[in-house]
């Protein structure tokens, strides 16, 4: 009698299973840096000067109601100056008029002012933890920026 042992062998098959997971391999940060840069500005300035002209009048005023206060004569402000004189009688005499005329003159000047300008710095975190700047192409606004004067 022969004894046969039966052994059952399981058949095993491996099947791959694909899963996805997010793993952080680095980071990016954006910083906005503000700097002050000197700019030269061409300015147009307006100055008003006053020209004073003294005009002798010597006109006698018969009564005190005849005296006038300052008045405008075109672009000239006339300020009357009276004095009281003692003759046999007292009377008001218009001694002089002070005429003030405004003259405008234009001058140009260049002023240096400090302007603030911002730019963004984009950096990528490296595997060792350090930060490395990322070179970005200039934008159309960067190309239109006003060039700085020397």
Descriptive tags:
150 residues; mainly beta; five-stranded antiparallel β-sheet; DUF2382; DUF2382 domain-containing protein
Structural class: mainly beta
Determine the fraction of residues in helical runs and give it as a percent range.
under 10%
Let me know the average pLDDT.
Answer: 83
Number of strands: 5
Strand content: over 45%
Number of domains: 2
Q: What is the global morphology?
A: rod-shaped
* Largest sheet entry: 5 strands, antiparallel
What does this entry look like structurally?
It is a single chain. With 150 residues, the chain is mainly β. It folds into 2 domains: 28-41 and 110-143, no CATH class; 44-106, no CATH class. It is 3% helix and 58% strand. The chain is built from 1 helix and 5 strands. The protein has one helix at 140-143; strands spanning 28-61, 71-73, 76-86, 90-125, 131-133. Strands 1, 2, 3, 4 and 5 form a 5-stranded antiparallel β-sheet that branches. Strand 2 (71-73) and strand 3 form a beta hairpin. The longest helix has 4 residues, at 140-143. It starts with 27 loop residues before the first strand and ends in a 7-residue tail after the last helix.
Short recap of the structure:
The chain has one helix at residues 140-143; strands at 28-61, 71-73, 76-86, 90-125, 131-133. With 150 residues, the protein is mainly β.
């Amino acid at each position: 009698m022969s004894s046969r042992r039966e052994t059952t062998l399981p058949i095993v098959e491996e099947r791959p299973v694909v899963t996805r997971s997010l793993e952080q391999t680095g980071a990016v940060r954006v910083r906005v840096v503000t700097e002050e840069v000197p700019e030269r500005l061409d300015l147009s300035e307006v100055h008003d000067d006053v020209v004073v002209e003294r005009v002798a009048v010597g006109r006698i005023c018969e009564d005190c109601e005849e005296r006038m206060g300052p008045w405008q004569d075109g672009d000239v402000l006339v300020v009357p100056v009276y004095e009281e004189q003692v003759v046999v009688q007292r009377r008001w005499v218009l001694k002089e008029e002070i005429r003030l005329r405004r003259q405008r003159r234009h001058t140009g000047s260049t002023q240096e002012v400090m302007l603030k300008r911002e730019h963004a710095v984009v950096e990528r975190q490296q595997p060792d933890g350090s930060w490395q700047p990322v070179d970005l192409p200039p934008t159309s606004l960067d190309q239109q920026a006003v060039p700085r004067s020397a």
